[in-house]
Each structure stands twice: as C-alpha cells, then as structure tokens.
Design a protein that fits this description.
Length: 200
C-alpha cells in the first residue's frame, strides 16, 4: 500500500475527505504525515483526532525555503512516503522537494486550469463573470498551478452566484473527486498520458 503525506495550511476539509475515504476503504493508502505551515490551523486538529503524526512549522523560523524543505524531506524519507498530496497548502514547492518527488506531488485547485491560477481562484472567476469554473487535479511542477493536468470537473456559474455558493459547490466536488482520483493514481499508477488531461 502506498504511503502519502498531506500538506495543508487551512481548514483541511479535503484532508478530512481523504482521511474518511481511507477509513472507509475507498482509498487504499496509508496517511503517514500531515505537514502544515500554519500553527493553529484546523487541519492540525483533524490530524490529532485521526491519530496522524504532524509536522507543524513556521517558515519565519527558517532562513530559507530550502532549509524547511530539507527538514520536511528528511521526514518524508524516514517514513518512506511515496506521494505528497497538497490539499490547500498555500506555498510553492521548491527545488529541494521537487528534486526527489517530482511526478509524485499532486495538487487540487479550485478552477479549470489554466484559467484562474494562483490565489483566490474563486474570486477571480466571479470577477471575470465566468460562465464556467470547476476543479482541477494536477501534478506539481516549479510553476504556480502549471503542472500536467490529471482530472477536471466543471461547474456552471449561476447569474446570482456568490463566493459562498461557489465555494460550497467546489468543495462538494473536491471531496469526492480527490479521493477517487488518488485511488486510481495510487493503485493503478499513472492516470495521464503526456500532457493530455484525463477527465473523470
Ligand atoms: C480547496 O478549495 C483547494 O482546491 C485549494 O484550497 C482549498 C482548501 O480547502 N487548493 P480545505 O482546507 O481543504 O477546506
């Protein structure tokens, strides 16, 4: 069974969906570690409740990204973690982790990439009066939400769509799609051919 580490910075509702899917046997993986860069974030509480070891750090206590990523890498290698799963981790992954894990780091983003990358994708979609947005699961490279796409699901925006209503629709999709795609990825290997998206 593959071992995963989840990286999160916030509430961690996607982390919870992964924990629940593992518990139900719908996702055949072992969650070895939560990595969190925000002391006090609610995802830490979720890890404690589920008895998942955590590494919580404050980037300000390190000289550089390379320094804290080196520490994270040591933990990942000690635990023999196979895949890194980003779930609302609000930092770019640097060369230290990419060098060892590229092709084995996955992210979920609340838009139809390449549209609306970066921060506040929901606000960007609303400001652009987009008719469609959605969810993208993709491999992580050195760019901001630029890695090869694994899966996407679309959402139609209503005329009166609000940040709250869109957020809710996005989360509802994410909580099903992420565990389902991870199950395929972790048990059957690659779900991507070249740069072509595979839409579920
Ligand atoms: C999700 O919408 C995800 O797409 C984005 O950050 C959000 C995290 O939400 N990368 P949560 O912490 O899992 O509730």
């Amino acid at each position: 069974m593959k071992k995963i580490a989840v990286f999160a910075s916030g509430s961690g509702s996607n982390f919870q969906a992964i924990i629940d899917a593992v518990r139900k046997g719908e996702l055949e993986a072992a969650i070895s570690l939560l990595v969190c860069d925000k002391p006090g974030a609610y995802c830490i509480e979720r890890a404690r409740t589920a008895n998942i070891p955590t590494f919580v750090f404050n980037p300000k206590n390190y000289h550089s990204k390379a320094d804290y990523e080196q520490e994270i890498l040591r933990l990942l290698e000690n635990e023999k973690v196979d895949f890194v799963i980003l779930a609302g981790y609000m930092r770019l992954i640097g060369p230290t982790l990419l060098k060892e894990y590229q092709g084995r780091i996955v992210n979920i983003h609340p838009s139809l990439l390449p549209e609306f990358p970066g921060k506040d994708a929901i606000g960007q979609a609303l400001a652009a009066k987009a008719k469609w947005s959605g969810v993208t699961i993709h491999y992580v490279d050195e760019g901001m939400d630029t890695g090869p796409i694994i899966a996407q699901e679309r959402i139609r925006l209503e005329e009166n769509e609000t940040r709250e209503s869109l957020q809710q629709k996005i989360h509802a999709i994410e909580h099903k799609l992420y565990p389902a795609i991870l199950q395929v990825l972790l048990t059957k290997g690659e779900v991507i051919s070249g740069k072509k998206a595979c839409t579920y």
